[in-house]
Design a protein that fits this description.
Layout lengths: L5 E5 L2 E6 L1 H10 L7 E4 L2 E4 H8 L25 H5 L33 H24 L30 H5 L4 E2 L8 H8 L3 E11 L5 E16 L2 E6 L13 E7 L2 E4 L1 E6 L6 E6 L10 E2 L10 E6 L7 E13 L2 E6 L11 E4 L5 E7 L13 E5 H4 L5 E3 L1
Parallel strand pairs: 5-13
Antiparallel strand pairs: 1-2, 1-3, 3-4, 6-7, 6-9, 7-8, 8-12, 9-10, 11-12, 11-20, 14-15, 14-17, 15-16, 16-19, 17-18, 18-19
Length: 400
Amino acid sequence: MNELTYSLEWRGARKSALSYADIEAGLVSGDLHTLYKIHVNGKWLVLRDFVEQQRPLLAPHSARQHTLPPPMSQPALLRPEQQSAVPPPTPQGKAVLPPASIFAASPAGRKTPKPVWFWPAIILSSTVCLLLGVVFVYMSATAPTRPGSPHIDDSSSDISSPTTSTKSPPSSDAARDKSILTSSAQHNLTNEEIANLKSPYVVMIRTRWMDVDKAGKAIVAGGNGSGVLIKHENGHAYFVTNKHVVKVPSHIEEVVYSLNFMGADHPFEVVKLGRYDLDLAMLSIKYSDTKDQSPLNSARLDDLKAGQECVAIGNALGQGISVTTGVISAFDEWEEGKYVRTSAPISSGNSGGGLFRTKDGALIGIMTLGSGSALDKVVQNINRAIPMDYVLSDLFWENF
């Protein structure tokens, strides 16, 4: 048998003196592939086309075997008319049945195509996880504060110290008992919870002095009112009330001031008064035991809406701390700003007490005016409170 040899080339690398049997063996072992060029009769052909010309057509795809067919007879040299009959390369995109040597590899080595739903399922699950993460972060950021825990907001305005404008480094108690803070997120409270949580911050105030009646007889005169704890600072506790609660006649020289705080009577002094005829006064007592007294939170005018429920706490008729309920009715103009109008019933002695918003327990004002009466008019439950915007601003205070 005439043993012909061939030269093969791939990207500049050449293999020479290869028989047809060597080429078949190289295709099976993987040393060669069908894209090699082979030199036949002075021309370079694609090895795949050459091999297909030299052996029978391959079996159908379903009949593919993992072994090579029996060795083929030695091919003869191609004549010119045979060379022109070599089929052209298959157009791109059309399937070509590979030579039998390709099927010698194990099917386990081929990648299994993924089903059509695979990538949509991956995208959908990733989107769901991302949305759940966003919801979790949002819920964590807006989670309500546990009831009873103090809320500290360093951006709130402080009422300056009545004795000096120089601020000393705060102690741990002073930092905790900073002045009234802006409103904080809490769960909706009931009227009963407001009464239990906020009543300890409201105190009974008594003003007493000696006077002479029209008959010239010596008598004890004075009045009763309410006050609200504002802050602890430098061993003192500070309260806000109405100016008219601590006002005495000009001819009186000796006055006895006292307030009941934490179950005990304490003498107090007036340290500041409200400007612009604002009916406010600030009181001070010596009190250093502040470990159980957390600061109140408060709400500003911008946070208040007509219709919000509220609770008024004060020393009605001078007979002790009592509670009445209502709503924010409106906002009444005055020369320097606004009052908060409320339908919560107010009586003599409630002056200087606190008006608290029900939903979060925030202090929204200091009670100052009752409805009273008007000629030819029926007036009911039109009462007013001074907003905390003015209570917390140094612009509305002057030293006494």
